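ugh ok fine here u go
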Amino acid sequence: MDHRQAARYWEANALAWTRLARQGWDVYRDAVNTPAFLDLLPDVTGKRGLDVGCGEGHNTRLFAQRGAQMFAIDVAPTFVQFAAEEERTQPHSIRYAVSDAMELPFAAGTFDFATAVMSLMDVPDHARALQEIHRVLRAGGFLQFSIMHPCFSPPHRRLLRTEHGQAYAVEVGRYFERVDGRVDRWLFSAAPKAAKAGLPPFETPVFHRTLAEWLNAVIHAGFTLERVAEPKADDDTARRVPAVEDTRVVAYFLHVLCHKR
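structure:
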């Protein structure tokens, strides 16, 4: 599957995704992944940033609220439309555009930093995307991105629960099998039936790469690794949002902070 085919899937997902996420059903994002991403993020006050794969702009707005001058892109026009509508309602001086991480329409050295929250894993050629991001950063600029943890989301994955429903392990396999565009069908598991009624399932293309492939691509693109994080729900979050308690079994997310040399 190439990047244009993948983009068509994300355009088809955009309406249902935005509706459910804005109703609060993307609980892994809101309770675990985004707070941890913000904790890792360096000071962006006054810096010019690019958000790659912005979706409907939720995280882009959070970066702008921290004082960054944000430009954001997504491959799905409907996502960009929703983000731009929100910008008109609650301005954060964010500029949005439809574009692809593998073909960034910016001159070299345009940005002080870039973010990519749970988006690069959905790009058919992650190495090319990293090279493009490196190109549009100034010397000394940084990239911070998050992806599904490749060690714990390989082609075979099954969450194991006790007879009482308590998650206790994740069964994984086929880790070294390269996947190029398998389509998974699902909706946010926390959303009740009433919220999901009448909505088509998401169809998300999967491009599995090993941890070594990811880290080597970061290094080959010209970045220097600075920090890596594997967030999980803390005790309070797990009590408050029981749906994310399973993030304490294994690492669901991998966060990487790196700098352009």
